[in-house]
TrEMBL record:
Source organism, top-level taxon: Bacteria
Species this protein is from: Flagellimonas algicola
UniProt cross-references to InterPro entries, sorted A to Z: RNase_HII, RNase_HII/HIII, RNase_HII/HIII_dom, RNaseH-like_sf, RNaseH_sf
Cofactor(s) needed by this chain: Mn(2+); Mg(2+)
Record's protein name: Ribonuclease HII
Keyword Nuclease (UniProt): yes
Name of the gene: rnhB
Entries under SUPFAM superfamilies matching the protein: Ribonuclease H-like (SSF53098)
């Protein structure tokens, strides 16, 4: 059972999606849920079907005190590394909140202080707190939507299905067609690849 609050009202949950992908942005969601918010379906986005995530998104958006989603794209990921890009995406998502949070719940174990607001990192937090689970659903649905859009441009990588993750099919397509502007050049795209000729 997910907990609704940790310490305060106006507590923001934040989480990212797409950290382990070879292509596309890393996307973060931040959300403040109203006090007493309950939803029996809501869970860590990885535990939910795509359909359930899609059904939850408009509910979360309409009931949230405030929410925001931010993409950090490949060039920035390559220049500052994926960990920093993930934290930057969360900071930018927090920047987008219309209501200033009094406390921030972060999924995972790495974060950098945001403004003067106290935060807590919670490992597997998206399975423990509603606000983090809600942020994970927003991050995942917005990122999946973006990957489906760029799939139209490069259908041979099947991003609509693999979302840019290093599946066997995705790696085969990289072998066959090379890298696109959406691929993260700093990532090891193929198992045998040790250096990239840029």
């Amino acid at each position: 059972m997910l907990k609704s609050h940790y310490k305060f009202i106006h507590e923001a949950g934040t989480d990212e999606a797409g950290r382990g992908c070879l292509a596309g942005p890393v996307t973060a969601g931040a959300i403040i849920l109203p006090e007493g918010f309950r939803n029996s379906t809501l869970n860590d986005s990885k535990q939910l079907t795509e359909l359930k995530r899609e059904q939850l998104r408009p509910i979360l958006e309409s009931e949230a005190v405030s929410y925001s989603v931010c993409h950090v794209f490949e060039e920035e990921i390559d220049s500052i590394n994926i960990l920093n890009a993930s934290i930057l995406a969360m900071h930018r998502a927090l920047d987008g909140l219309q209501t200033a949070p009094r406390f921030i719940l972060v999924d995972g174990n790495r974060f950098k202080p945001y403004l003067e607001i106290e935060h807590e990192c919670i490992i597997k937090g998206d399975g423990k707190f509603m606000s983090i689970a809600a942020a994970s659903v927003l991050a995942k649905t917005y990122r999946d939507e973006f990957m489906a859009k760029i799939h139209e441009e490069y259908p041979m990588y099947n991003w609509k299905k693999n979302k840019g993750y290093p599946t066997k099919e995705h790696r085969e397509a990289i072998r066959q067609f090379g890298l696109t502007k959406y691929h993260r050049k700093s990532f090891r795209q193929l198992p045998e690849q040790l250096t990239l000729d840029l």
